User: Fold this.
Amino acid sequence: MTPLVDPETALTLARPSSVLAVLDFAGVAVFAATGALAAARGKHDLVTFGFFAAITGVGGGTLRDLLIGAPVFWVQDWRYIAACVLAATAIWMLGARTWRFRALLWLDAAGLAAYGVMGAAKAATYGVAPLICVVMGVLTACFGGVVRDVLAGQPSILLRRELNITAALLSAGLFVTLKALTVPTWPAVGVAVVAGFGLRAGALKWGWSLPAFPSAPTRN
Assistant:
């Protein structure tokens, strides 16, 4: 099977100075901040802030790496955990602000789209089948948030009507589709990230959601 991402591009993706590497660190920091915010809602201490930030920031990527047989990224590079700690510290020092949750929803939307692509792209470099690359993209973008919500005792993102997982699915699926059509990697990344972010942004601004399963008709 021909890999979706050629070897030269695979080396570029792993290079610290590459665009996707920067997006990877930014995504970890953004998701770590949402984990710290979950700790803030529960009025926890700074250590718990750091724990929630780390588990949310690296949770999805950890599961992806274990499933595709890759070295776990944050074990290989300590800067990912440092980014989580810095994000948690920033949220702690920011204190109670009325706008911070709304701002992080939009940052989370960008991280969701970028991480969906990043997860799919990394899986592709390991020769994973296209459909599984899409699954890895969605897991990378969403699994950390699932663990965060379970630990915080909040409704999981899996149970919310808003377009959250769907945005990650669109990003990952569109990237894999474009690569299968031999579109160059960087244009494929740009289109997929913009599409995923646009879908999530529409859900935040206009309340977009998928149709729900219909209720059974009531009998008179």
Notes: The radius of gyration is 18 Å. The mean pLDDT is 85.
